Amino acid sequence: MDPSEVEFLAEKEVVKIIPNFSLDKIYLIGGDLGPFNPGLPVDVPVWLALNLKQRQKCRILPPEWMDVDKLEDVREMERKEESFTPPPSPYYMELTKLLLNHASDNIPKADEIRTLVKDIWDTRIAKLRLSADSFISQQEAHAKLDNLTLMEINTTRSFLLDSLNCMFKLRSNMQPGSGTGKALDY
Amino acid sequence: MPCERKPMRYGHSEGHTDVTYDDNGKFIVTCGSDGDVRIWESLDDDDPRSINVGEKAYSLALKKGKLVTAGSNNTVQIHTFPDGDPDGILTRFTTNATHVAFNHSGSRVAAGSSDFMVKVVEVSDSSQQKTLRGHDAPVLSVTFDPKDEFLASASCDGSVVVWKIEDQAQVTSWPVLQKSNDIGNAKSLCRLAWQPKTAKLLAVPVETRVQLYERDSWEHVSTLSDDMITQPINVVAWSPCGHFLAAGSVGGFLTVWNVESKLCVERQKHEKGYTVCGMAWHPSGSQMAYTDTEGCLGLLDALPSSSTNAPMKTNKAPVVKEANDYDDLFDEDDDRVMDEGLSESHSPAKHPVVGGDDDDDDDDDLMPTTGRAKNRGSFLDDENSLDTGSLKLGQEKYGDEEDAGSTIALPTGPSLPPRPVYDGPLPTPPQKPFQPGSTPSHLTHRFMMWNSVGIVRGYNDEQDNAVDVEFHDTAVHHAMHLTNALGHTIADLSQEAALLACPATDELASKLQCLHFSSWDANKEWIVDLPKGEDVRAVCLGQGWAAAATSALTLRLFSIGGVQKELFSLPGQVVSMAAHGEQLLIVYHRATGFDGEQALGVQLLQLGRRKRQVIHGEPLPLSVKSHLSWLGFTAEGTPCYVDSEGSVRMLNRSLGNTWTPVCNTRETCKGMSDHFWVVGVHENPQQLRCIPCKGSRYPPTLPRPAVAILPFKLPLCQTTTEKGQMEEQYWRSVVLQNHYDFLSSSGYEIDGDGQNRAQREQQELLMKMFALSCKLEREFRCMELAELMTQNVVTLAVRYASRSRRMALAQRLSELAMEKANQLQEEEEVEDQQEEEPQLPRCRYGQSEGASGRSNSRSHQAREEEHQEELEEEEGAPEMETDESAGENRKRLNPFARGAGGSPEKPSPKPIGKEGRVNPFKVLGSGKSPSTSGQSRVTNVLDSMTSVKRPSPLGGSSGKQNKGPVLKPLAPKPKTKTQSTLLQMATSKAANKKAQVNTEPAVDRLKQPEVPPPDLPVDDSENKKPRTGFQLWLEENRKSIVADSPDLQETEVIREAMGRFRSLSAEDRLSWTERAKGQSGDLADLKKRKRAEEVGGVDSQNGQMEADENIAKKKKPLDSTTKLSAFAFNKN
Question: Where does this chain mainly localize (chain A) (predicted)?
Fold first, then answer.
């Protein structure tokens, strides 16, 4: 799974837009959207919001959590807590990226938000690395991590799994007796 | 001559300030904690020149083009005046200089500092300094002896010291002040002042008094005081003539004494009660400028000057006493009871044009939630305190003057008449005109209009005075940006145009500018000047026209292209206007409101081809102590408004143009100070579009607010209960459905689906409520609900009632259903008559729909009944009961029965019982699917109707009972009969045969059981005749009608009937009697034949139906069956 796939999934998230056109309900497989009334907020998936935004057909209202004060709180929490705190949104990173890249003019204090989300992201990734490190160094068999978002898991997955595999091989090679079979296997 | 207190204006940012005049009094010069020195040409100077002298400026002195300031950078600087070029540093201290002063000639400057020193510096040569040491604390102030010999200084160590400048030595020292450790902690700034010219007296503010010390003897010679001054005096200043001494105190009291008489000449209070920290007399002595610690600058004008000195002495008292009106009174001396609120509420009235006005309004408008009421409360309080204050005032005056040892006689003392105190209701200041959907005009960034079309924003700041027009739907037009050169403050926006208006200025007349962007020619704009002296107060845009209400109480109509059209006068000053399509809604001041209420009137005009006034200036209902905050139309065209308490009201056209509250936005607010700013109302779907404003009444322009949607909620009682909820839903649906009628009647397209949906919803709700009250055993309430239902829903209700074993209810309901059915028919007939004129297609559509629905439901019901019968047959005994009661039902079915009976006659149980009992047997015996018992049980409206098809062919339903009556028909009877029927016909508009037939059989049925055998035969005959010959009956009926009142009936029909009757008259009687007999025979057979008849009937019915299709279309199938029966008779 690569990040673009995760982003694709994030595009299903619902966001409010204010359209500047009028359109009846549209009926899609994923559900009905609309009706679109100019000036009235309406819920649409991010992919549509971005599409409309790019065509200058709407204004995007930032999600509730995309607010400097709230994100500052989250950041503080994240820094304070040892474990992972619940993220502001399961797709916070993706949505921030998408919305700020395409609709930063509709989001007040976009730069601050970008920084804050990056801070939160960095903190969480650091935690993730730390826990991976302790997981490996303590040679644990399993570990439990709550409140990880898909994107976060995705960033660490390939590396962690590969390295674990590799380490396993190395270790099994080091152990005489059982080593031969594994080595062959490899 | 009371002086005039000009309203305060903003001068510097908050903090210590100082003020002085330049030598010839042309400029007022102030300095403040923002480090600026401002040069004002007058108090109204909107663009004072600023000179920056440092981070902060503590004090300034100005003489001979030299501006000396004490700043925070420990220096005393010189700037040239009025150019403001830096001219070097006069002297330095180790810490802040606190006060600077020029000597009389302007050759020397004295400066006091926080490092306990006082320096005297030659302006021309700053190296020539004299340092006066001796204070033990920061120096508060310094002042020169006008003769340049001495210098006085006050310090935080509590002493006031007089120095001999040449010797740099203390001459004397008075420890009169309170000690403190720093300037900031000192109670008073203790600005000293030496009497100019004579230089005889030194004024020292000590606490709340001013002590005067004599030169040379340095003795305390007198004290000036005033009872009004309750807080320490900060500043004293001599008038240039030296006769008057002014003092300004902490808490904002300003007092002027005549020093010789020691009398207080003027008393003023700072309008907001801020501490006065700087004060200066105009060189002419007629004006005095003062500044406060909040950075504001004020002015007292028309002060007693030296020239008027002599008369003043004698006139002083009269001046005070003669003040006979409120205004003078409180301009002259503000009573201490009065607080800021009073002066606030007062000053705008006095100076409506000056800046202060705006400030007051700001407070008012921006006041959160409770702001309005609170403000008003304080306003009222003030008024009251004013009254009491004004009474006290006189006494205090006397006291003051006597205290001061005045020897002046008070000749006018007794002339002060005791003013009657008015403590009745006080008038409310009338609400200012506004555009619905705009934020207050004093905001620099504001919404000039936010409506369903778009947004007009106004910017009015230093860089830009512009108007932005933006459309919600970019398909209407692209956004526009206009420079607002004319200073437009009023705007409206529609799909066709944007309308802007500006008030008149000194040079320019009030203008109306229209950007007609939908115009197809190249000229997209027009401007109209209003006549001189007339200001636009409100504008609105309708479809193809524009309206402007002006200050001259005139409403001017324009076409959208700029053609002037009608104009008319308004009954009062306009508050707001709104337009939709061809409708124009105007709200104006009807009268003066009292005790916080506004007295508003409303006019609704229709400006289409047929111009008329729909609402003729009726009072507009508002919540208690509120004002109008939004006015407009729903998207569907129903007038609607919102008051400041958040209550949304909508015109209820179906209830005599009354206003129904449909929502209260305040209920949905989270915080007390949150508001919803309404921008639009929609009835279908039910939406109140508004912008949530946290902690304010109005939204800011940035960040761009988002629209939220509120639901409607009628303020019905107990909406927490299920019943209340459903009632609320029902009535909301009813109220919000009114627009369909209006739209269709004014020729607009309507959303038929939406209307049907709404009606269905209403009926469903009624049914639910019905079920609920049924459960609660509230049968009477059930009836009441049923009265609101349509006929076919009533039948459902009947079924529900009978199923839940509420027979009494079911009976009544079926009566009701019958009634409704009749009504419906009547209406249909009326429509038939009116068919030629296709007047209300909508209505007809609805009805035909209803009719078909009815038939559907009926057939559906019939099926259901069958089902039920089968079940009930198995039940046995209980079924009998139901049959009986059903019989009762049937009896009461008919409205006539009710009319005749008045009191519900108990049916003799026998016949019914028989019928009931007989039926089940028959059903069982025949084994055919539709059991008679079922039918009898079902006897509700519909079934009675289906059974109607039988009576004619069958004659009577139960032979035995009918026999007695059958004997009756005598030749002469017809007449009596016709009479009685006539009445019935009249009621049901007998023009239509079928209708008559329809009801008649029902009557028969009912009457039969009612009339016990022993009854008088005559009565019976009457009852019976209808039963026997329908055809004749009708003909006769017509005849009699013709005889009685030809006008009532359709003449054609009547004449036809007449002709027939006459032609048939010979045979008539014969056939009549025959029929009577035949019927009795038929009646006996009724039961047996029933089924066969039905089948046959249905067939023939169908045939008939086809034949009569045109007519039958609208009628229920029932009608066709009766027709059929009539047909059968004819054959007979």
Answer: nucleus
